[in-house]
């Protein structure tokens, strides 16, 4: 209720995550704990070992490679409700099942809509960072719970600001608005390439003439690195134009099939990702960007 003290916060992490300590500190939340294991038949055991009755509970979940995580997440969210939590919110810095946003061939499952409908029934609100909103204008089109989308661009711009002689590179037309905003905030010039997708792992990237920037370090900007093929082709396109120093900054680093090693071998001198997904390349902290939307969602449940 308005004017009354809010219930205390408890933050659980589905798996070990670099954001848990910083979020607990900034939100003055108690770390939650639970015991889990698998029975010999593969079924899950779960026991909450932190008192949660009357408390707002947050679950921090890295939802990359989601098929093995979905049932443990469901069990955790629902058990927190059964134990009397005042509310149960989900902080998913990376939100899965967003790319299949229409049926391209008759009979295809629109998994983004199906997943959103299912997940909405197990938590009270959702906060995420840069979901793949291509044909959807907002998460409200598919999620039935209050949701907040955090833009990762300010964190990348802050990491780039003050570094001299950089040329920001967007790999395709879809990245223009995003890369241009980062360039404006960080004070660097940028160019945008053209991408032709020929298959799930086959793309071609071409770049405009960058001969006037040969004294700069090229920094490829991307929202998510999954198969890494777009990034690899962008590196090759930069090398074809004689760019000697190439780096990359991205929000989400999934790095399917260990493509990280391949990217570094291709000539990157630095690859920095945010800590939305745990990886040795994490160099950009999104904690400050998450605090306001999390507090807003908790306040909605407290009214």
Brief account:
The protein is built from 8 helices and 16 strands.
Describe how the helices and strands are arranged.
Elements: E1 9-13, H1 19-27, E2 30-31, E3 34-38, E4 44-48, E5 56-60, H2 70-82, E6 87-92, H3 111-120, E7 125-129, E8 147-150, H4 153-160, E9 166-170, H5 176-186, E10 190-192, E11 194-199, E12 202-206, E13 217-225, H6 229-240, E14 246-253, H7 259-265, E15 270-274, E16 282-284, H8 287-302
Parallel strand pairs: 1-2, 1-5, 5-6, 6-7, 7-8, 9-10, 9-13, 13-14, 14-15, 15-16
Antiparallel strand pairs: 3-4, 11-12
Q: Tell me the fraction of residues in β-strands, as a range.
A: 25-35%
- Please state the structural category: alpha/beta
What is the percent of helical residues?
A: 25-40%
Number of strands: 16
How would you state the average pLDDT, rounded?
Answer: 93
What low-confidence regions span 5 or more consecutive residues with pLDDT below 50?
none
Over all CA atoms, what is the radius of gyration?
21 Å
Number of helices: 8
The H-and-E topology, N to C, reads as: EHEEEEHEHEEHEHEEEEHEHEEH
Q: For the record, give the distance between the C-alpha atoms at the N and C termini, rounded to a whole number.
A: 5 Å
Strand order of the largest sheet: 2-1-5-6-7-8
Shape: globular
Q: Main β-sheet, in a few words?
A: 6 strands, parallel
